[in-house]
Structure formats: C-alpha cells, structure tokens
Amino acid sequence: MIDLSVASGFVIGLVFGVVGLLSGFCLMSSLRDLWTSNDTRKIRSYATALAVAIIGTQLLVGTGLVNIGTSIYLQPSFSAPLIFFGGLLFGLGMVLANGCASRALVLLGKGNLRSLVVITVIGITAQMTLKGLIAPARIAFLDWTKTAPTAVSVPALLNTMGLDDTAARLIATLIASGALLIYAFSDKQFRRSYGQIAAGLIIGLLVVAGWAATGWFAADDFNPIPVASLTFVSPIADSVQYTMLSTGLALNFGIALVVGVLVGSLATATLTGRFAFEGYTSVTHTGRSLAGAAFMGIGGAMAYGCSIGQGLTGVSTLAMPSFIALAGILSGAAFAIHSRTRLLAFAFR
C-alpha cells in the first residue's frame, strides 16, 4: 500500500522542482537582484508566494481541516536568540554558496555538481547540529535562553487584546497577506512578468498543499505523522542519512519531497535542453561553497528551517519564531550581499 504522505511529498516536490527550475525562484537571488540591480520581480514573486501561503494555511486552520498547533513552528517555548542566530548563519551561508538549500536541489537536477557538494554538506552539518557533535551546545544554549511567552503567534497575540479566535485570525491574515500583495502588484514590471506571478502563486499553493497532505489528506490516527509542509534543511539531512543507512529507517514526507524536487528539475532540464554538467572553477570557489553549505546546515538546524521552511512555511502559520528566523535570514543575507570584504565579494564573481 502506498503511503499517502510519501506520495504527496513526492508530487509536491516534483512540482516545486519544475517551477523552481523554470522561474529561478529563490530568496537569495531575489535579494541579490533587489540590492545589486534594483530588479524587484523575483522578490515580488516571493512576496506573492508568502501571501498565498498565509491565506491558504489560515483558511485550512480556520475551517478545522488542519491543526498546525502541533507543528514545529508553534511550540509553546522557544529561544529567540538561537533562532535569530541560526537564521543569520543561514542567510550568510546561502549567499556564500550562491543559493539556498532548495535552490541547490533544483540546480543539482540540471547537472550542477557543485550543488551535490552543497547538499551533502548541508545534510551532514544539519545532522551534526540536530543529533551529533554540535547538538549538546545547541541544546544547552536553547535551555539557557528559551522562553514561554503568552502568545506564540500573531493571532494569539491579538487574542490577548480581547479578540476571539476567528476575528484574530482573519485580521492577522488580511493585514499580512494584503500588505504583501499590495507590495507585489504595485509594480508595473512585475504585473507583466506572468512567469514570476505564476511561480509565486504555485509555490504558495504548494505550501498549502503540504499542510493539507500531512495534516488532513494523509493523516492517520493509527499511524500519526508530523504536520509539516515545504522545508528543506531537515529533509536533506534525513535524505543523506537514509541514503547511507536505509535499513531500519522509513521514507517520510520530507525525504520524498527532496526526491521529487530532484526528479522534477531533472525532467524539466532534460526536456528543455538545460541539462549540463557544471563544477567548481577554483579553490576559492570550492571553499566559499563549502563554508556556505556548512553555515546553512548549522544555521537551518538552529532556526528550525530555511528560507522556504521558515520564510514561507513557518511564516504562513503566523508564528512569532518564524518571523524571528526570517529576520535573521534577511540580516545575514544583507550583510553578505552588501559587505565589501574580499571573502564575501567573491560570492558575485
């Protein structure tokens, strides 16, 4: 019998791989275009995806179809310093590696062998941070700095001001998604970029599909699975571990998602004539990529997600920790992109 969560993860990943390759959807390249050439089309596509993800996710929650309260993003206690620092590392790393974790998967599908190195290092360092050598330090810092605030999400914060659940969720959703959509479609050039608009809409819907798949469609009271959606650092770590030690391990939504992205990207690259092997051009290029991948693996594990996992999926829950993680990612990327140091300047050669 086919595991519905695994099948769903593969299909969602497949679509992500196709769209990611055709559109170049990636937060790092969006920020680089914005801050180095004032091209806002990709960042507006990202804003569109986030708005759609928020609307769809909150609709699932409001109708009672999915309980995201059990997800990793809405835990009752969290460490803001750890999450922010993890996001900072991830943002720095994705610039050094010239792409985030999801982008590395997409590029590997089109023959970019640098991405194979990046993915492998992300997987290893994420496992080290979650369960290995770095885990004790991470856990100690988490225990030292974690807090249990009264409200862990924007709707919960509005609840403390006297609003009921429905009104709080509706107001938070309308304000967040409305602001994002106004920003996205206020630009004439973006309104004519039909490919980028479509990419934003589809990626946002994939986040919603992930929640629906794990929290409703594939939910099984006799075999419960974590409620999750698009995210890539932990799934890459699980995929590396599964590849090495498949005996005794089981396929899950995240591993299937990773495989689906690779297959979708490979098929699209082959059919469109974009497949071509690429490698490193210098020792410096290699070192920068390795450092960036390590930062993404460690940072993504600390922040409980990546530019997709926290930046889209996490924020779609309107969780406070996800906004903190996204702020860290943006800060790290901003420092790396705007830095005048020799090391970081190499990222754009």
From TrEMBL:
Bilayer topology: Multi-pass membrane protein
Protein name (Swiss-Prot/TrEMBL): YeeE/YedE family protein
Keywords, comma-separated and alphabetical: Cell inner membrane, Cell membrane, Membrane, Transmembrane, Transmembrane helix, Transport
Organism: Afipia felis ATCC 53690
InterPro entries membership: Sulf_transp_TsuA/YedE
Similarity section: Belongs to the TsuA/YedE (TC 9.B.102) family.
Lineage: Bacteria, Pseudomonadati, Pseudomonadota, Alphaproteobacteria, Hyphomicrobiales
Location relative to the cell: Cell inner membrane
Transmembrane residue ranges: 6-28, 49-74, 80-101, 113-134, 167-185, 197-219, 253-277, 289-312, 318-337
